[in-house]
Design a protein that fits this description.
Elements: H1 4-24, H2 33-49, E1 73-75, E2 85-86, H3 89-103, E3 109-116, E4 119-126, E5 129-135, E6 141-143, H4 146-149, E7 165-172, H5 175-187, H6 196-204, H7 209-214, E8 218-224, H8 235-245, E9 254-257, H9 258-272, E10 280-287, H10 291-296, E11 306-310, E12 315-327, E13 333-344, E14 347-353, H11 357-363, E15 370-376, E16 380-386, H12 428-439, H13 451-459, H14 476-480, H15 487-500, H16 505-511, H17 519-529, H18 532-536, H19 540-544, H20 550-560, H21 564-575, E17 597-601, H22 609-618, E18 622-623, E19 633-636, H23 642-649, E20 653-656, H24 657-667
Parallel strand pairs: 2-11, 17-18, 17-19, 19-20
Antiparallel strand pairs: 1-6, 3-9, 3-10, 4-5, 4-7, 7-8, 10-11, 12-13, 12-15, 13-14, 15-16
Helix pairs in contact: 1-2, 3-9, 12-13, 16-17
Length: 676
């Protein structure tokens, strides 16, 4: 018997997908809004009556509705590499020269594209149907955000090509949409969205797809991952094909020839950038001939056949309303500019660091001045100079405070230090920042304990010292009175805190916040001494002999572990059941790598550099970023660069990948590459 509901669902799905494409992609419509809504309601009613016919890719899912528990992880079939960045015309010239040298060709043809300031995304299709949408993540593993991406009406759920296809692009929010959303949020007394990029990324990572749908996101698609396998010879042709399949590709792309074409394209979009309906933070140039991609190859993180040119940072003028002082966990005092909120490179900025007293004096920065603000590296807000023509004649030079604004202690500044410091160990600002550092990813990495919650816990008297975190489970009633803390949140928080007790020693050593001891030094200390008790009792001489410690750091560590308050804290942490042993090192037996300092340079075929570093560190090897006389091993992959040359000059032990794999098999007790 013919299933009439099934047939009608197929008909309605095809019609609604076609009308969506006409309206959102072609900017035209062959039906009225009333007719479209009527068809959509009919499909909804059939799906409600026949849940077995409801597909995750149904047009009814475009409006969102499901609330997810979380995002599952997706392992990318091929790594989602980022592009190398350049910041001026000379670097573009150098890039083109390298491409010409490596290909032995001149006047290379490139595809010039605008660089959308959004969230990188991958779409995977099989048999013409969307399988999933995933974020970039760390390049190897992303998050499955299909439910939210489906709310973007321009993304096709079905395509006519039945082959396996992966398409990559950028999800973004238009300037107009951001402006409209912020108007609504202002009326509702909600915080404004800072910029389009953050708004797009935050929308995609909403667990409630209805919220994602309400944000009216868009997407451009700029890369057909398996283009060569599908028979394409040029990147530009593959983009044209994506457009044929129904994907929105950016019309601002242009094929250019040689460095002259590249620089002309830069000049064109330097002027055109403000008029675009979306934010761009640069331009991208890709070698158009796909055959040359394999010739040029890849580094571990970036393709050598493409480059991203970043525009110089925007500079805007705004008023400096005040200068406020913050005191960090080590007592370091930092002056910060409080600014009239202003948008810089897409972000709304109200504060910027002023570094130190000398910085303020050198630029003669005064409260009430109008200052020029830009983003250093397009990331960190920075005051560049004062607009003296707008200075109030009655203004006076800023006088740096002599006492701590939080505890009243007199600030200190040595001749060799440009920073003022608060020497009071019990300064409330220092204490709060120590607590924040302890639970951050620099320390014990306890999920759920954000900066504002930690400060709240301190102010409520629930956490005064770091060991108090491990007693929070006894304060359920008090915590449940705090904003945003319900039973589920409390249980999750307690679980995460308890789990941190088993962290390897290096995480605890880093979390203690010993001056001059970061994650890398903490790892070396932990692997050398294995147990915290051995580290506590170490002499200055023993500490200073370690490769990355030195006399100054050794003295700081020695003094820390000979302070009675610190020893009492360690005793309390031990009584609470925290792990004091280094569990990240293989202790069962000695092996070739144990204790050896290594530098890894070039790309590896067997794994990523990050994975290999972790594998070697698990055997007790010590990672270093620079080659020196004390380096034991230099591990060399493809395209190794200057570190390899320096290793040869110093006549250091060089290990190539084939030998590395054999040494790993021996050191790990015969484990092969597939079972690592």
């Amino acid at each position: 018997m013919l299933d009439t509901d099934k047939k009608r669902v197929q008909e309605l799905t095809e019609l609604l997908n076609r009308y969506n494409y006409e309206y959102y992609v072609l900017n035209q419509s062959s039906v009225s809004d009333q007719e479209y809504d009527s068809l959509l309601e009919e499909l909804k009613s059939i799906e409600e009556r026949r849940p077995d016919l409801k597909s995750p890719l149904s047009p009814t899912q475009r409006v969102g509705g499901s609330v997810q528990e979380g995002f599952k992880k997706i392992v990318h079939q091929r790594m989602m590499l980022s592009l190398g960045d350049v910041f001026n015309e000379q670097e573009l010239i150098d890039f083109n020269a390298r491409v010409e040298k490596d290909t032995r060709l001149q006047d290379i043809e490139y595809m010039g594209e605008v660089k959308i300031d959004g969230l990188a995304m991958s779409l995977v299709y099989k048999n013409g149907e969307l399988q999933y949408a995933a974020t970039r993540g760390d390049g190897n593993v992303g998050e499955d955000v299909t439910a939210n991406v489906l709310t973007i009406p321009t993304i096709p759920t079905h395509i006519k090509d039945k082959r396996d296809i992966e398409v990559r692009g950028e999800v973004y929010m238009s300037k107009k949409t951001l402006e409209e959303l912020n108007k609504k949020r202002a009326l509702n007394n909600e915080p404004l969205l800072a910029n389009a990029r953050n708004a797009a990324a935050g929308s995609i990572r909403q667990l409630d797809s209805k919220i994602a749908a309400s944000r009216k996101l868009s997407a451009f698609w700029y890369y057909l991952v398996n283009a060569e396998e599908l028979g394409f010879k040029r990147h530009s042709d593959s983009l044209d094909y994506l457009a044929e399949l129904g994907f929105v590709t950016n019309p601002e792309r242009e094929r250019v020839k040689g460095i002259k074409g590249i620089l002309n394209y830069v000049e064109k979009y330097r002027e055109k950038r403000p008029s675009l309906g979306y934010d761009i933070d640069g331009l991208v140039f890709k070698v158009d001939d796909l055959n040359l991609h394999e010739v040029l190859g890849y580094t571990m993180k970036t393709p050598r056949w493409a480059i991203a040119y970043k525009f110089p940072p925007d500079e805007v003028l705004t008023k400096l309303e005040n200068i406020v002082i913050t005191v960090g966990r080590t007592g370091r005092v930092t002056p910060n500019a409080v600014l009239s909120p202003v948008r810089v490179a897409g972000s709304l900025i109200a504060r910027a660091t002023l570094n130190n007293e000398d910085f303020i004096k050198s630029k003669d920065i005064r409260i009430g001045d109008y200052v020029y603000l830009h983003k250093a590296g397009d990331v960190i807000p920075e005051v560049s100079k004062v607009e003296l023509s707008r200075r109030d004649p009655s203004s006076v030079p800023y006088v740096f405070p002599s006492t701590c604004p939080y505890c009243g202690t007199e600030l200190v500044k040595s001749e060799s230090d440009i920073q003022h410091r608060c020497p009071n160990e019990n300064c409330p600002s220092r204490k709060i920042n120590k607590l924040i550092y302890f639970v951050s990813d620099y320390g014990m990495d306890i999920d759920g304990l954000g900066d504002s919650l930690v400060e709240q816990l301190f102010n409520e008297g629930l956490v005064k010292e770091v060991d108090d975190f491990y007693s929070l489970k006894e304060h359920e009633t008090d915590l449940m009175l705090l904003d945003g803390i319900g039973k589920k949140t409390f249980d999750s928080l307690v679980k995460n805190i308890e789990r941190s007790k088993s962290n390897s020693l290096e995480m605890l050593v880093s979390a203690l916040g010993i001056p001059l001891v970061g994650k890398k030094t903490a790892l070396e200390l932990s692997r050398h001494f294995v147990h915290l008790r051995a580290l506590v009792s170490a002499s200055k001489e023993e500490l200073s002999k370690l490769q990355d410690v030195g006399e100054k750091t050794a003295e700081v560590i020695y003094n820390y572990f000979h302070n009675e308050d610190n020893l009492n804290l360690i005793a309390r942490l031990e009584a609470l059941g925290l792990n004091f042993e280094c569990t990240s090192i293989v202790q069962a037996k000695d092996n070739f790598f144990k204790g050896k300092k290594f530098v890894l340079t070039g790309g590896l075929a067997s794994s990523s550099r990050n994975e290999m570093t972790k594998r070697l560190e698990a055997l007790g090897a010590i990672s270093s970023s620079s080659v020196s006389k004390v380096t034991d091993l230099v591990i060399v992959g493809s395209d190794p660069g200057s570190k390899f040359e320096k290793a040869q000059k110093l006549k250091l032990r060089i290990v190539y990948e084939d030998e590395l794999i054999e040494l790993l098999k021996e050191s790990e007790g015969g484990k092969d590459e597939e079972n690592k």
